[in-house]
Amino acid sequence: MNARIWLTGFEPFGEHKTNPSQELVEQYLNSTCIHSPRGVESGPVEMTFLGRILSVDEAGSCLSLTHLDGVDAIIHVGLNERAEKVRLEMCAANLCDFRIPDNSGRQLQDVLISSSGPNLLQTTTPRAALAAAFLGNQFVEISEDCGHFVCNETYYRTLHAIRQQSLDSEKKEIPAIFVHIPSFEYVSMEDQSEILIELCAQIVQRI
Ligand code: PCA
């Protein structure tokens, strides 16, 4: 099987001149990679990475919604300025509350993303299996708080669309997760790359 993975990073925002999520993700876009996930018996998986570097605004948060068809998994990656580890985000909140303006100048305060959606949406990836796969990894943690800025907005929109799509068509939900990364000072680009590929392979192996 060759799994098609929709992988996204973000442009710089706020005071940042660069965004490590852009550098991390750009290495893989439009390429294919073969990787054997740890601790899983069924051998190597082949993954083709499609995706984009998203603008940090409403347009960027919505862009993936027009690409859900024909992809096997969705991995969004963004910078968390305060993180010192790679955070696997387990849920997205139906709330925008921006501390700083986004790259289009929006500064939403206490605004719902979807007027009819639930307060929280959970990752559609197998949570327990991923937690177990990264249990011994000192650079990875599980997080229940994706913040209230554009990363959370993007994650919520994606999970909401996946849920809607599976309700409408009775198709299985596409696995999707948000990964918040720290600056490369805390976890090197090389270590973050290994974590990202291992995560993708773990998810794809269980489709
Ligand atoms: N991090 C921001 C948005 C873009 C990014 O890389 C966030 O955590 O919402």
What CATH architecture would you give? 3-Layer(aba) Sandwich
Could you tell me the CATH topology label. Answer: Aminopeptidase
Query: What would you report as the Rg, rounded to the nearest angstrom?
Result: 16 Å
CATH superfamily grouping: Peptidase C15, pyroglutamyl peptidase I-like
Mean pLDDT over the full residue set: 96
Structure write-up:
With 207 residues, the protein is an alpha/beta fold. It has one domain: Aminopeptidase. It has helices at 20-26, 58-63, 127-133, 150-169, 189-205; strands at residues 2-10, 31-35, 45-54, 73-79, 86-89, 91-93, 120-122, 140-143, 176-181. The longest helix has 20 residues, at 150-169. It is globular and about 45 Å long. The N and C termini lie close together (11 Å). The structure holds pyroglutamic acid. Pyroglutamic acid binds at residues 10, 13, 19, 21, 56, 78-80, 147, 149-151.
Kindly summarize this structure in a few lines:
With about 210 residues, the chain is α/β, with parallel strands linked by helices.
How are the secondary structure elements laid out?
Blueprint: E1 2-10, H1 20-26, E2 31-35, E3 45-54, H2 58-63, E4 73-79, E5 86-89, E6 91-93, E7 120-122, H3 127-133, E8 140-143, H4 150-169, E9 176-181, H5 189-205
Parallel strand pairs: 1-3, 1-4, 4-9, 5-8
Antiparallel strand pairs: 2-3, 5-9, 6-7
Keywords for this entry:
25% strand, 207 residues, binds pyroglutamic acid, seven-stranded mixed β-sheet, alpha/beta, 5 helices
